[in-house]
Design brief:
Layout: H1 3-28, H2 33-42, E1 48-49, H3 50-57, H4 61-73, E2 77-80, E3 89-92, H5 94-122, H6 125-151
Antiparallel strand pairs: 1-3, 2-3
Helix pairs in contact: 3-4
Amino acid sequence: MDATERAVRRLMLATEKIDGAYYLFARKRGAKENELTLLWALDDGQPHTQQQICRDWLIPKTTVNTTVKALAAAGYLALLPAKDGREKQIALTEAGRAWAGQVLAGIYAAERAAMEQTAAALGDGFVGAMELFADRLCEALARAAGEEAAKE
């Protein structure tokens, strides 16, 4: 394994560790991982469509749809008419905002502390570097998947 492969492996292990930490946090708070992600996505105070959430968070449409139905039935989400009249928008209800506040408060505090410590150690370029790597990796994987599909 060369230095680049080792670096990618370390980064992938770090991202898996982050994903696992969110998963364990969600379970301890009585939420499913997909519910946590949806709450996080909607906690910006703006309504979003399922399509937007699928695209932005790379979650399968069936997963988002199932999670939206469950949280709407529990009274945490409202389905609002879309501006274009096609796809409904999803927003947190008052109960949903309260639940999101309970579930996400610990996450936001932990994220803030970790980000402040990381920025102090590495500078402000850390986030930009992660975004750049994520964009380049998504592009390369899409190309690789396209090439593999063409061979099949």
